[in-house]
Write a structure and sequence with these properties.
Length: 116
């Protein structure tokens, strides 16, 4: 079995994209991830948020975050497609440390929450 890696991907969708089109974009991105051998463990649509500063003359956008497990290092095809998409203002893909991925239960069973 190849090495499994856990990633978190965040995209910011341009505020000009209609709210009704966001689910289609989410499905399209998940399809790109699956085509590249990734498994989406969770999808979290944060909705429209104001930026701390203007990006491309815009002051807000829709944030979507995924937790992904894959054997493909870095999901290069998905990242390229996000970089080229006009409706994506920003995206960030980063690898989760193994202990964090285990804590979130991305590699199997979720770890019990620590009492605090």
């Amino acid at each position: 079995m190849a090495l499994q890696r856990a990633y978190e991907l965040m995209i910011i969708v341009d505020s000009d994209v209609a709210e009704i089109d966001i689910p289609k974009m989410i499905t399209q991105t998940e399809g790109q991830i699956a085509d590249e051998g990734g498994t989406v463990k969770s999808t979290d649509n944060w909705g429209r948020r104001r930026f701390a500063y203007e990006i491309n003359h815009k002051s807000e956008g829709t944030y979507v975050v995924w937790e992904i497990v894959t054997e493909t290092a870095g999901l290069p095809t998905t990242e390229r497609q996000l970089r080229l998409a006009d409706e994506i203002v920003r995206h960030k893909l980063f690898r989760l440390p193994e202990h964090e991925a285990n804590k979130r239960g991305l590699f199997g069973e979720a770890a019990p929450a620590a009492a605090g």
